[in-house]
Amino acid sequence: xxxxxxxxxxxxxxxxxxxxxxxxxxxxxxxxxxxxxxxxxxxxxxxxxxxxxxxxxxxxxxxxxxxxxxxxxxxxxxxxxxxxxxxxxxxxxxxxxxxxxxxxxxxxxxxxxxxxxxxxxx
Length: 122
Known about the structure:
It is built from six helices and three strands.
């Protein structure tokens, strides 16, 4: 059997009708036990899984050993006054910010964690 080059296959595909190409695809599926549509479905499913949430909330679970430091960071993040920020920290678990982008939530988590707090992103 003569070996066919890639260029020859591409030349055939350029000149073939849709019906002829469909026959070739069906023959390949039968011969090798594969389905031409499977990779597309897998790729689409992978995109859905990778999407992740578009909005999250940052929840302060515990203020740790440095309550004053955490209150300062909460004031900086939220723009609250001292008393309101202290009340928020005192009432753990409490939501610091909600319905924000995951990237912003990660930045807030880093700041609070650096101050000694235990933070969760939901």
